[in-house]
Amino acid sequence: MTTPHLLILTGASRGMGLSMARQLLVPGHTLLCISRSESRLLAQHAQQAGAALVQWCHDLAESSALGPRLEAWLREQGSTSWRSATLINNAGVIARVGPLSQADPDDLAHALRVGLEAPMLLSSAFLRATDGWTAERRVLNVSSGLGRRPMASQAAYCAAKAGMDHFSRCVALEEALKTGGAKICSLAPGVIDTEMQLHLRSADPEAFPDRDSFARLKTSGQLTLPDEAARRVLAWLARADFGAKPVADVRD
Question: What distance in Å separates the CA atoms of residue 76 and residue 9, rounded to the nearest whole number?
Answer without folding.
Answer: 18
